[in-house]
Amino acid sequence: MMNSIDREFVISVKGLSVGKHNYSFRIEKPFFDEYDNSQIINASLVANVSLLREISWIGLESEIEGEVVVECDRCLEEFSLPINTKASLIVKYEKRDNGFESDEVLFLDPSESELNIKQFLYDYICLSLPLQRVHPEGKCNPEMIKILTKSLTSEKPEELNTPLGSLKDLINN
């Protein structure tokens, strides 16, 4: 059963004329709350989606812009991270019984009348996040940096070859 947030990201394709169609979607905190273990705490994004409808396929081009709130990997405080990414997807009308899947092509049964793009948007937003999410230089919580620095400098030299030792290098960089 589809909830109200899912419905916001559904495009009715049954009877949609051949040609280009444009859609705009607001993506905020409730969107990410639906996903377990999402690293995105809050968001203010707009996804502009251009849909090219052909007889046997649909092409989606999207541009997603705005900000997400994530946790800093260094000091563990929340901060805003700008997002500006583009994503594409081809949707083919084709019945698939063999379980074949592709990252570039989504197969839609010809009897389907709706296309839910929520997962597509979520995946591309997450893929646009940098691997290391940290505040800009000098913006981390100074108290947390003091605690980490003090903890790391008070370690015995043989203990600095542990994962904690590499934290010292991360803080000093």
Features:
173 residues; alpha+beta; 2 domains; five-stranded mixed beta sheet; two-stranded antiparallel ribbon; 5 helices; 24% helix; 36% strand
C-alpha end-to-end distance: 48 Å
> Could you describe the largest sheet, including whether it forms a barrel?
5 strands, mixed
Tally of distinct domains: 2
Overall strand count: 7
Tally of contiguous helical segments:
5
What structural class do the secondary elements suggest? alpha+beta
Please report which band the strand proportion falls in: under 5%, 5-15%, 15-25%, 25-35%, 35-45% or over 45%: 35-45%
SSE series:
HEEHEEEEEHHH
Low-confidence stretches: none
The gross shape turns out to be elongated
Global mean pLDDT: 84
Task: Give a brief description.
It contains five helices and seven strands, in the order H-E-E-H-E-E-E-E-E-H-H-H. The chain has 173 residues and is of the alpha+beta class.
Provide a descriptive summary of the structure in words.
The protein is built from 5 helices and 7 strands, in the order H-E-E-H-E-E-E-E-E-H-H-H. It is α+β, with helices and mostly antiparallel strands and 173 residues long. It folds into 2 domains: 4-138, no CATH class; 141-173, no CATH class. It is elongated. 16% of the residues are buried. The model has no long low-confidence stretch (mean pLDDT 84).
Topology:
Elements: H1 4-7, E1 10-12, E2 19-28, H2 29-33, E3 42-53, E4 57-71, E5 78-93, E6 105-108, E7 114-116, H3 118-128, H4 142-153, H5 163-172
Parallel strand pairs: 5-6
Antiparallel strand pairs: 1-7, 2-3, 3-4, 4-5
